[in-house]
Amino acid sequence: MAALTLRNIPDDLYQILKKQAMHHHRSLNKEVLYLLEKVLRDDPGDDAAWLLQARELRNSLAELPPLDDSMLEQAKREGRA
After folding, report:
1. What is the DSSP string of 18-70?
2. Minimal CB count within 10 Å: which of 5, 10, 52, 62?
C-alpha cells in the first residue's frame, strides 16, 4: 500500500480531524482515509436528473397554500397529541 505524508495542515483543521476521529472511535489515519474515500468514491449522481427532481418537487408544492403561523402552531399541537 502507498503512504502519504501531509504537511502544513492548519492547526484548526487538525483539531477538527482529531475531534471527529475520536467521536467515530477511529485513529486519525483511519478517519482521514474514510473521509477521502467518501469524497472521492461517492457518486454525486446526475446533476441534471437531480435538478429535474427539484423542479418537479417545487412545482408540486406551488399548488399548496403558503404556510402561516396559525398552520404551524396547529401542526405543533397535533404533533404533541
Report:
1. HHHHHHTT--HHHHHHHHHHHHHHS----HHHHHHHHHHHHHHHHTSPPP-HH
2. 5
Q: Which three cell numbers stand for residue 17?
A: 480531524
| pLDDT tens column, 38-63 | 888 877 677 888 899 999 999 988 88
Burial of 34 by CB count in 10 Å (0-12 exposed, 13-18 middle, 19+ buried)?
A: middle
| Angle between helical axes of 11-23 and 28-41 (0-180°, round to 10) | 90
The grid cell for 25 is: 472511535
Where is 6: in which H helix or E strand?
none
Q: Indicate whether 22 pLDDT > 70.
A: yes
Count of all residues that appear for the chain in the document? 81
DSSP assigned state of 5? -
